[in-house]
């Protein structure tokens, strides 16, 4: 009985060894096909029979190659057969599925032709793939709504000179007998506009109260900075009395702290509020085409949900008001790794060369959104006519 068991095991091992080959250093499927199948051009069949090999250009010493039934005892190759046609179906497999690896839904099948190449070249260093520079977005739902207040409250960026020369802006100071540190609704202010400076001004007109501050924005080229004026809407006031060069007004609404020592005022400006009816998904993006966060409006430089950030691309590059965006962090540890998704938002206001983004979602408490992180458009806004 022992002899029969040993004989059976030896015969099984002999059959296994006869149909298998262990890869040595320098081997390629091209060489193995030429040596054992007498046809180096038959290497795709050899690869198809060895489903554990993901990439035919990369086999490693110690790998086991199943040569199949393609050789006879005398070393001559049998007539070429298609592996899937020759395979015997397992009775446990679903109907119309011939064998493992022959299913049309097989994950590797779609890449079969794309991965074919010239295996005669043994210099595998030339076969390394270039790191991909295009990334596909995960399918995520489009923004549910674009609120008009996103536009109204979005900060504006001016050069220092352009703000000084813009005649729409005028002075503002407290009109209270005892000036408060922070003005609130029902507080009185005095604005630098009157009949002699603007003949159209009248009682009841609304005045925008704007927080205006000088900021330094890092440039893209080096460690220098560009100086800008950051202007944000703080509230509205209604003119109650008009003089020759000054007018009194009462604050009727505030969106943030109103400090008159660094505020400007202007008559309420018409704003074309967007009506976004839906979104068109953008399927992919190239890393080099992404924009970059240049500035954050938060004084603590911590970018969270419902924070505004300044991005260095605008309408000229396809970054338009209403579009949905994603914020990415590059992984410098390996150029082949795709960037990490940190959050999402919408473009609240766009000029030709830059835009202001409202961050809507932040996905990580440990990975903060910072200056220099990448921004790309994921959904283009469809505007109602």
Written overview of the protein:
It is a single chain. The chain has 385 residues and is α+β, with helices and mostly antiparallel strands. Helices cover 13% and strands 31% of the residues. The chain has helices at residues 2-18, 29-36, 43-48, 83-86, 112-115, 148-153, 160-165, and strands at 20-22, 64-66, 134-136, 156-159, 172-174, 188-191, 206-218, 225-242, 247-254, 263-267, 276-281, 284-286, 291-296, 308-311, 324-329, 340-350, 355-362, 374-383. The strands form four sheets. Strands 4, 5, 6, 7, 8, 9 and 10 form a seven-stranded antiparallel beta sheet that branches. The longest helix has 17 residues, at 2-18. The radius of gyration is 35 Å and the shape is elongated. The model is unreliable at 1-17, 72-95, 97-116 and 124-132 (pLDDT under 50).
Keywords:
alpha+beta; six-stranded antiparallel β-barrel; 18 strands; 13% helix; disordered N terminus
- Unreliably modeled segments: 1-17, 72-95, 97-116, 124-132
Distance between the termini: 89 Å
Report on the biggest sheet.
7 strands, antiparallel
Report mean pLDDT, rounded to a whole number: 77
Principal-axis shape: elongated
Output the number of helix runs: 7
* Overall strand count: 18
List the helices and strands and how they pair.
Blueprint: H1 2-18, E1 20-22, H2 29-36, H3 43-48, E2 64-66, H4 83-86, H5 112-115, E3 134-136, H6 148-153, E4 156-159, H7 160-165, E5 172-174, E6 188-191, E7 206-218, E8 225-242, E9 247-254, E10 263-267, E11 276-281, E12 284-286, E13 291-296, E14 308-311, E15 324-329, E16 340-350, E17 355-362, E18 374-383
Antiparallel strand pairs: 1-2, 3-12, 4-8, 5-6, 6-9, 7-8, 7-10, 8-9, 11-18, 13-14, 13-18, 14-17, 15-16, 15-18, 16-17
């Amino acid at each position: 009985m022992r002899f029969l068991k040993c004989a059976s095991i030896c015969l099984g091992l002999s059959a296994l060894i006869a149909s298998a080959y262990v890869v040595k250093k320098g081997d390629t499927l091209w060489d193995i096909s030429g040596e054992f199948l007498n046809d180096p051009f038959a290497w795709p069949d050899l690869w198809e029979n060895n489903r554990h090999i993901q990439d035919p250009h990369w086999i490693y010493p110690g790998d086991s190659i199943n040569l199949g039934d393609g050789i006879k005892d005398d070393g001559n190759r049998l007539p070429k057969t298609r592996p899937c046609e020759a395979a015997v179906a397992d009775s446990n497999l679903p109907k119309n599925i011939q064998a493992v690896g022959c299913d049309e839904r097989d994950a590797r099948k779609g890449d079969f032709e794309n991965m074919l190449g010239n295996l005669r070249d043994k210099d595998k260093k030339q076969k390394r793939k270039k790191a991909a520079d295009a990334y596909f977005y995960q399918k995520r739902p489009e923004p549910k709504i674009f609120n008009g207040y996103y536009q109204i409250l979005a900060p504006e960026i001016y050069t220092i000179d352009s703000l000084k020369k813009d005649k729409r802006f005028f002075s503002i100071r407290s009109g209270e007998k005892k000036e408060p540190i922070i003005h609130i609704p029902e507080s009185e202010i005095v604005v630098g506009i009157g009949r002699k400076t603007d003949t159209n001004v009248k009682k009841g007109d609304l005045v925008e109260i704007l927080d205006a501050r000088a900021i330094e924005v890092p440039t893209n080229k080096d460690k220098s900075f560009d100086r800008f004026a950051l202007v944000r809407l703080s509230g509205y006031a209604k003119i109650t009395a008009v003089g020759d060069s000054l007018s009194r007004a009462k604050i009727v609404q505030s969106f943030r702290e109103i400090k008159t020592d660094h505020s400007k005022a202007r008559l309420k400006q018409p704003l074309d509020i967007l009506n976004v009816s839906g979104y068109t998904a953008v399927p992919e993006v190239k890393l080099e085409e992404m924009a970059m966060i240049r500035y954050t409006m938060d004084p603590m430089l911590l970018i969270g949900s419902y924070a505004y950030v300044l991005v260095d691309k605008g309408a000229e590059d396809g970054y338009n008001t209403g579009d949905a965006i994603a914020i990415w962090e590059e992984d410098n540890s390996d150029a082949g790794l795709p960037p990490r998704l940190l959050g999402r938002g919408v473009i609240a206001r766009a000029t030709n060369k830059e835009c202001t983004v409202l961050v809507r979602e932040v996905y990580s408490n440990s990975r903060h959104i910072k200056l220099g992180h990448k921004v790309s458009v994921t959904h283009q806004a469809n505007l109602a006519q």
